[in-house]
Design goal:
Protein name: Anoctamin transmembrane domain-containing protein
Structural class: alpha+beta
Organism: Brassica campestris
Number of helices: 19
GO biological process, one term: chloride transmembrane transport
Strand order of the largest sheet: 4-5-3-10
Helix content: 55-70%
Low-confidence stretches: 267-296, 394-405, 576-581
Number of domains: 2
GO molecular function, one term: chloride channel activity
Keywords: Membrane, Transmembrane, Transmembrane helix
Order of helices and strands: EEEHEEHEEHEEHEHHHHHHHHHHHHHHH
Amino acid sequence: MNANNGEERIVHEVALVLPKRTRKEEEEDCVEVLVTELKKRGMVVDRDVGLADEFLKVAAPLETLESAAAELHIRKPTRLGMDLPFEVQGSEAFIQQPDGSLFSWFERFRCYQHLLYGIVNCYGHDVTLKLDGRELCWAPEESLVRKLESEGVIKQMFPLHDELKRKELLRTWALNWWNFTNQPIDKIYSYFGAKIGVYFSFLGMYTQWLLFPALLGFIVQMVNFGSLQYLVLPSFFVITTLWAALFLQFWKRKNAALLARWQINCLVGPSQGYRFLGMEWSSLPFPKELTKNLGNEKFKEKEPYQRYEWFAYRKRFSNDVFVIISIICFQLPFELAYAHTYEMITSNIIKFVLTAVYLLIIQYLTRLGGKVAVKLINREINESVEYRANSLIYKTYIGIFYHVLLHRNFTTLRQVLLLRLIISQVFWTFMDGSLSYLKYSYRKFRARKKKRSEGGPSTGKIQIASRVEKEYLKPTYSASIGVELEDGLFDDSLKLALQFGMIMMFACAFPLAFALAAVSNIMDIRTTALKLLVTMQRPSPRAAATIGAWLNIWQFLVVMSICTNSALLVCLYDKEGKWKMEPGLAAILILEHVLLLLKFGLSRLVPEEPAWVRANRVKNVTQAQDVYSKQLLRSSSSEFASMVKPEQEQQKED
């Protein structure tokens, strides 16, 4: 559902994939029953037959979405400044989205899931469903969609692209190369959801800020400063460190402004400590009998919570220690072997091949480590899916090593970094565009081959005319590891964090890396946009409204870059390796401590929220207090009046 100029435009946003039937049952056909039940729920269903499958395209009018949102008690911001559960009667009081619709894409998708999986057997007896001679028993109070999924009747449920909005985004975003880093962020948020919108906003801001150190790094790399080179590199190191600290602090401000503009309240959520009361009591690791006695003795109340808290911390800490020890035992020797082999080889071609093989092995080790991390996370106690996803990010990124002090020669280190940046860019470009297109082409080939084997035309090309079938054949936007925890943004964010780590941790050794990163990011904005809009299915929306654990990793990389660049400057000034505390080396140590203090000082000097966001929040809180106060006074007055009135009547009778 979308609103255009006051008129409702019905858009099929979800599709169900069913196997093509060989015959149609006369009665109790499960597909016909499903279509009937969907229409009873108020949804608009359109059927489409493809080469090998049948598709049900589902749309929900505004009235149906409103009913589902009221049943789910979705909390939405109102014009009063409060987040209240949605009610159909007071829908005018709720604030609309930037595109003019009442519900965001994440809220609509939740409503679709509720409507589809909420179809249950209300007849009070078993219902026999038929499909191609098979009989299925639909038990009372059982979800019809889940039953058909378990029996293999429904192959997949996936979001559909809105062709009108998709073409508009292609024109104004993916194919609009002249805008460089400018992007229609509000439209991206409305179409893909908050998480993807925030990611592209972060990528665009990062690329814009990268232009300054890119220009400066190009000058430092290309211009021969002669004897001043020993002063230019430390100055460049100081500038880039301050630049990175300021960028991350101003990103927090922009993120807060985005959430305020999109009317997303992130103050109450899983990021605010453990939400014990928001969890199901059955999921807590202490007996249910303890919950019955809450309120009797305060000291005894705290004991199960404290045991739960420290038990969860201990599990996560032991898993992190296991990951670190595994890396030291397995990956670090491999890194040392690569660095030693690279030093021994003289041919540049062999070095290029060695680096390519090294990066492929690192990619495999990262995926292997990610699988281990997923198993460890499943044994942890995390309060939400987003917390589990953040834990996966930390455990995977621990395995990314940089050979900082393995190459004391600046020329060798520059060659290694240049090869890594070039090969990484080629590899990720292939992964982003070519691989998804090859998967799509292969699936179309298999569908045509299956159609031909089932009696289709033996000559000529079989065309796939159905748009929904083309969407179904496209690969999903999923992560290379931890599919159940993360979507494709995991790989994109990992690529960005690796790039930031390389350019920051080796800023003194290879200043030109900033320029290469800026060019790479400008291309990456468009290629990733094309991937999302053309070669992949529309991603399912995620609730996260920040970049999550990646921000902490970037903060950590800034701190690490101060240490590594100081070490590189020591190598530059101490070519003989005597490690004497000469005035230059002492100055480097002092510079390191000063930069660390400045980095943490800037995080306190620059506010994380713009003044208008804070003022708007205070205004909303004040309005909410006024409304609650008036309601409390009215209820108190009515109760007092009901108590006084009988007494007055009794006095009159006396």
